[in-house]
Amino acid sequence: MKNPAFQVSILAGWAIACLCAAQEAPSPASGPAPVPAPLRPAFLLTAAVHRDGEELSGRWTYSRDLYRTGLTDINGWVAKSRMQRFRDIDIAASERRGGTDFFEFDLDRGPAMAIPGAWNAREPELRYYDGLIWFQRKFNAAPRPGRRAFLRFEAVNYRAWVYVNGKEAGRHEGGFTPFVVEVTNLLREGENRLTVGADSSHDAKSIPTPITDWDLYGGITRPVRLVWTPATFIDDATLSLGTDGRITGEVRLQGPHAAKQKAEIAIGTLASVSAVTDKDGRAAIDLPAPGALRRWTPDQPTLYDVRVTAAGDLLRERMGFRTIAVRGKELLLNGEPLFLRGISLHEEEFGPNPARDMTAPQARALLHEIKHGLHGNYVRLSHYPHSETTLRLADEMGLLVWSEIPVYWTVDWDNPAVLRKALAMQAETVYRDRNRAAVILWSVGNETPVSGPRTRFHAAMADNVRALDPTRLVSAALLVERRSAGGKAVMAIQDPLVDKLDVLAVNTYAGWYGADTLDALAGLDWQLPADRPLVLSEFGADALAGYRSGDRRKFTEQYQADYYRATLAMAGRMPTLAGLSPWILKDFRSPRREHPVFQNGWNRKGLLSETGVRKEAFGVLADYYRRKANQGGH
Ligand code: GCB
Questions:
Q1: Architecture of domain 244-322 in CATH?
Q2: From CA 114, how far away is CA 195, in angstroms rounded?
Q3: For domain 48-230, is the CATH number 2.60.120.260?
Q4: Which range, of 2-6, 278-282, 603-607, averages the lowest pLDDT?
């Protein structure tokens, strides 16, 4: 019973659905990429954790759907299986009637798993499941007169279909960014049925493609929250400190009475200001930074309670205020030189079976190792937006952040629809995190081989992110080219994208991949643009914790430690070096890494094993950062 015409219409419908989350952006023509209009999701619900609502975490029942039946029996074409998600079957009543109704995918009686979290870690039989699973959670609610109800998903990897009481509420594509669907008119008194299809499969047009170096991690990986608002509500509020000493930002209302409302903003007890919304419900904020304002720094990460009131609604945030800028080859935090003592991090908690369930204690433990174990002040959150919990903790604990979306290795550079996806992901990330003082760098890509279409794609991303947020710096983790000149090995950045970047960043693995020995690193000559700061966004070598030999054998702890010594010595000869984020804090799951003795499904470049055991190289980097920190500055 295959119906090809119908399948095409589903795909077309999907493409439309992805785009309706954001306004259309122009696609790159040949020649220089145009500056696209900033994209804005329909609803943001900024600071959702502080809003009136209910977490829908807990046990959700589920049903695997390897043949994607739930996506092929819509629009009137009836497959043999009966999906519950749009039929809203009362199974208990059916049973009372004698159990004669036919249906499959019985989500009421299916197995259950803890949500949030990736299914791959929940059941052994789902370890390498890559496809569609339907989840169901029932909750009690009652429509509230004059109030609106929303479901906010912090992340579903990679695509999501959301149904409430059998009716579609929304769809989303992108595994690491939040989305909001309004359910005011779908809720009923009493028990409500929420059904979510989560599809982990990636393809040539997804971001990322299936070619990565991290685990599949499918599912509802971050919290889901039911949020209640007044009919007219504050959807978003943002503030930031500029290098001109002023705090600027905006408040956005949504709803029938969003225009001509007085919005009042208070920054702790230091300052308050008011502004009136325009016809679109937007009020611009501009005030001089109060004299007593304490600047946010990694050493003193001061956060203020920010309260925004308008139209009877209240939005609460915790915000820090700092400036970030570049002066020649220097990075400046609050006008003072900054060296980024960092490390890269995947979103994986400690333990032998991570589920990407980033609770506050889990995130705190990881960030604590960076801040207090390594003496760091910076973390590269690779290769996708990490959980909001992690970002809020970085603000609170004082760790600067590099943020990126998974435009990684390759994507379909020539495809305007893929570019629109990337721009929408960027927008979702920026709107989510722009109130985090910790975030200083937006990266537009990781290790993408240079070509015309690729550079135009990244250039459009760089323009987009600047338009969305002019207050932060733009970077990308670039590939470095190794050449021979006059018998010497020369490392150089040959990439036209540098013109679009404030901060240059390169990943270098000389001494691990490739032919260079560790001793050769001392002779590598780096040719770098002199006018911009450079960050080594990655370098690293695998080591199996506890594996030692008397020599420099690969995969030993000594090799990794010597690799760090040699690379840090090389870095010391780079005149524009402004920071480091070696690869990586801890071992992480990757189906790409199948060495049967040393890896077994884990990338072993961690300075910590998967359970948190420190390898020798941890001490090498910690000593280096301790000395750097003692030299003063941030
Ligand atoms: C890289 C990638 C990172 C990999 C790493 C490796 O350059 O950016 O995602 O995991 O190398 O271990 O090779």
A1: Sandwich (2.60)
A2: 15
A3: yes
A4: 2-6
